[in-house]
Amino acid sequence: MFPPPTTTISSSSYHKPRENHRRHRHKFLSSVLTLRRIKVLILIVAVFLTHSTWRVVKLAHKTLPETDLGNSNNSRQDDVMASKEPTNGASTVQQRRHPNNRNDVPFLPPLPKIFPLPDMSQVRSWMNVPGNETAGQFLLDFAIIGNAKCGTSTIMTWLHSQYPQIQIPRDELYHLKSKEAWDLLGVFYHYFGGPDQLLPHSIKGYKSPSDITNERPIRLLRTYFPNTKLIIGLRHPIYMMESFYNFRIQNGYDMPPLEKLHYLNLANQYGVSWSRVEYHSTLMFLGKTNLTSQDELALFPRPATKQIQKRVEELKKEQHLDDNPHPQPLVAPYLRAPNPVFLYDTAQLESKENSDHASSQLVTKFGQDMANFLGLSSPLPPPPRHSPGKQLKNDTLQAERNAKKIRICDERYKEQRRHLLDIGNRTATWILQYFLSAEDVFVSNPYHFTKILEGYSQDPCTKQKK
Fold first, then answer.
1. What residue spans carry the region label Disordered (predicted)?
2. If you write DSSP's letter for every residue of 34-54 in order, what string do you get?
3. What distance in Å separates the CA atoms of residue 443 and residue 378, rounded to the nearest whole number?
4. DSSP letters along 77-115, please?
């Protein structure tokens, strides 16, 4: 027998698997090194972008107006200004610039008119038809609804005297507090002598400084006059309280001492109380904010908070939310009023003698913005100085009343001023952080307006003493 043939293995074929293994390992190491290089490159690019972004942020901060800057949890609103050191024990106002960077009040066209004017009885019958409640809208273009001693008489006189196409009764009209919406419109027909004397294409409005303090007028405006433009004035709480108190004295009211106002029933104070300077407790009736976050509710005094909670519970019962097994949604206590709002402070109306050019420009700009808001075809001149109130002809009696008036900057009222500053701080914070976020709330010169509201937490009497 022959032995089996011997298989000869060449050296090249013997080393081939080892070479393949080396080749695969080399490819693997190359891919790992490539991935590492990519990661290093990504890290270098990230560091470069971060450094560039920081340089841009620093440059932007340098170019902004001089103010304290902070962070905001709300991306829809621009920079929240950081708090300053408290003044006289009052907490600080969280400042923020006006949302959407609106430096100009846009032109809001006037409401469409009906010509010839119908009889008032016809208008009333239209408004009584369900679903046709806004039939009388064409008769009410604007309303000055607050606040007392916040320049409402100045605004009314200014509009009436400077623009011939504006018709506004010179008396204050409180019809929406106790009467129906068509009763308010009937005043226009009666006041101006019927439809023949009422200019069909005129811009019509009324003044009632206390309408903002009552939920009923706001509800009627929202229901029957949703396009009526609302003008609302503010004033530093310390100056407002002094002016309102002395106004009552001037008109013959026997006022209690200012120190006791906080402890007396409102009826015994003839409307003068701390609640009248809590502007946010009445602006909330407009429903421009949701009033659902705890941070927002914390800015309101206890009576207003209880009122909000009561309103929420009523709405839950109406909507049967308590019977819903699913988590209950947050309920906004007040329906949103679609009415546009022009908010101002009395400091924006003042153009003092020998004032600088910048101050005069602010007042001029205020007239332009008000004209745009009302839809006027030409700008308004700066507002005049107007001081309402009775000036007695009897000098002796006038001297007696002057002696009863207060000077709130006196040292005896230091505690009252401290309380008013606390109210002012919370009011200004809510307006700047929440109310101005509404798209249909406008102010003239937002930066100047913000600076004015910052002063609500600062005692102006300190500056006077210096």
1. 1-24, 65-105, 376-395
2. HHHHHHHHHHHHHHHHHHHHH
3. 19
4. S-PEEPP---BTTBPPP-EEPPGGG--SPPP-PPPP--S
The predicted structure's pLDDT at residue 90: 38
First-residue to last-residue Cα distance in the chain: 132
Q: Look up residue 62 and give its two tokens.
A: 């340098």
Report the sign of the C-alpha dihedral through residues 244, 250, 251, 256, in that order: positive
Q: Which helix (H) or strand (E) holds 142?
A: strand 142-146
- Rounded to whole angstroms, how far apart are CA atoms 264 and 269? 7
Sign of the Cα torsion 259, 265, 266, 270 reads negative
Residue 216 near residue 177, CB atoms below 8 Å: yes
pTM: 0.77
Sign of CA dihedral 99, 435, 384, 172: positive
Phi, psi of 87 (to 5 degrees): -110, 125
For residue range 37-88, what is the model confidence (pLDDT) as tens digits?
666 667 666 655 655 544 433 443 333 333 332 333 333 333 333 333 333 3
CATH 1.10.357.10 corresponds to the domain 66-291+334-465: no
**Closest to 207 in 3D by CA, of 227, 192, 188, 226:** 188
Q: pLDDT tens digits for 444-465?
A: 999 999 999 999 999 999 977 6
- Domain extent listing, the chain: 66-291+334-465
Mean of per-residue pLDDT scores for the chain: 80
* Local confidence band at 33 (pLDDT 50, 70, 90 cut-offs): low
- Among 145, 201, 106, smallest CA distance to 442 is for 106
Alpha-carbon distance of 465 to 455, in angstroms, equals 16
Given a cut of 60, whether residue 340 has pLDDT beyond it is: yes
Task: Give the residues across from 167 on adjacent strands.
Answer: 204
Q: What is the widest separation between alpha-carbon atoms in the chain?
A: 157
Closest-CA residue to 291 (of 335, 351, 333, 243): 333
